[in-house]
Amino acid sequence: MPLQNRVTPFGEIVAVAARGTLMGNRGVLHNAEQRIVRDWQVRRWIACRLEFRGRQRPVMPPGRWTALFFLDEATALAAGHRPCAECRHADYQRFRTAWSAAHPRPPSPEPAPPDWASIEAIDRQLHAERRRGPWQPRTHLAELATLPDGAFIAQDGAAWLVDHDDLLRWTPVGYTARRPRAPGAVTLLTPPSLVAVLAAGYTPMLHPSAA
Predict the structure, then answer these.
(1) How confident is the model at residue 114 (pLDDT cuts 50, 70, 90)?
(2) Is the pLDDT of residue 70 over 90?
(3) Strands 158-163, 166-171: parallel, antiparallel or unpaired by DSSP?
């Protein structure tokens, strides 16, 4: 039976047999019986490579961080994760560059906090946008016509990826349907700060089925 360690664009952690293309981390989420007992422990939610320098570890070791898995990077961003600074250093640098372009330093006379551009400040901002409380994902409203490629919306009970003039329906095994993007107000799943990063030029890795 598959473990409960696959993350959806809604930020839910589900048990499915399909393998993801990225791994993630939000702290220790499981108990000694390998059951998920919390949906986050730390504000540093990252998305990592599946393989890095030959490192190996159990998926849910006792008392250690819980490995989570995503269909692709757009899914990880929708759930509120950002690139890991170590195993995805080049992507992390691209992300920081896009973040700085999307969220410039506030001008005088409104001084920015001393750590306004630190990764800790970024993680705090993302956490405020992705959660209302334990097991309570936060969604937002947006105009579909304005959203960049790579953002996720909720429509008809499913998660849909914005892809040029189309929407792609997300499933745990890949994108299985395509329909035209139509204007109108929608429920946005990707945190607004990450939508701004996408609009600033950060291109997430997509599952091959998106093609």
Answers:
(1) low
(2) yes
(3) antiparallel
